[in-house]
Amino acid sequence: MKLPYLDAHCDTLSRCLNTGESLLKTTGQCDLTRLAAYEPSGQIFAMFHDGADVPPEGLFGRVRRMYERFCRERTAHPEEMRCAMLSIEGGELLECSTRRLEEIRDWGVRSVNLTWNHANAISGSHREDPDRGLSGTGREFVCKAQSMGILMDVSHLSDPGFWDLAEITELPLFASHSNSRAVCGHTRNLTDDQFRAIRDSGGVVGINLYNVFVGGDRMEDLLAHFDHFLELGGEKTLALGSDWDGDIVGAGGIRGVEEMHLLAEAMARRGYGEKLIRSIFYDNLARLLGLLPSA
Fold first, then answer.
1. Using an 8 Å Cβ cutoff, are 109 and 102 in contact?
2. Burial class (CB within 10 angstroms; exposed 0-12, middle 13-18, buried 19+) of 218
């Protein structure tokens, strides 16, 4: 039986726009060919650009170029692209504007990170303006997006922004690629209380493989985040959020999507049962995205 795989975040689409490679096969850490080794399989491809570097076409113009590239890939490789979904990493790429939400909804975008590393008109981020939460513009943005069924992604968000969102959210909370701050004290990671809030909302946390956010290079360091969140009752909350092609070094000796079986094997040796491994690798995120019925 093949291992299932569903991952909440990678930067491969953005990378391909820069390199000219096809999503079908890349020299990076993820592509459609390698994803096909899993069954079922799925990947959320983030549309990302560093908002501090505004291209000639503007930030939303760059997002539109990425979407056009995604559509060309879908036309060229329809079977392989069935596993592909879209997100947007940073509200600034939408000019923090509710009028852009209608366009991306029509594209099928599943989630939006309210911030990347830079603060914007929606909220402070974990790195810039970390004491600032949702603005009036941010609250309006959240309400509009959620009315369209678009998930709000808290990875990169400031702590006050997280709690402001938790107070007003009408959809499950979602952290596409964030780890445990109790295990690794990076501001990109979630506190225990934040994890509990996501858990209680019916949301999902995708564990990031980047060794900086893991806090080490070993498989033991990576598993410590799963272990900790499981101790907090995360059996239905944990998922994968690799951050492939985001200039990361994967912990646990995992260099790309083709080696994720190493994580599943390490989980099995640790005593994780087959049902729990499948939940983490596929089912929990699939339910959030409506690919499986609610538990």
1. no
2. middle
Would you tell me which CATH number, out of the four given (3.10.20.30, 3.90.180.10, 3.20.20.140, 3.30.2420.10), belongs to the domain 5-288?
3.20.20.140
Tens of pLDDT along the chain (295 residues) come to: 689 999 999 999 999 999 999 999 999 999 999 999 999 999 999 999 999 999 999 999 999 999 999 999 999 999 999 999 999 999 999 999 999 999 999 999 999 999 999 999 999 999 999 999 999 999 999 999 999 999 999 999 999 999 999 999 999 999 999 999 999 999 999 999 999 999 999 999 999 999 999 999 999 999 999 999 999 999 999 999 999 999 999 999 999 999 999 999 999 999 999 999 999 999 999 999 999 987 6
In DSSP terms, 6 is beta-bridged to 42
Q: Is this model's pTM higher than 0.90 or not?
A: yes
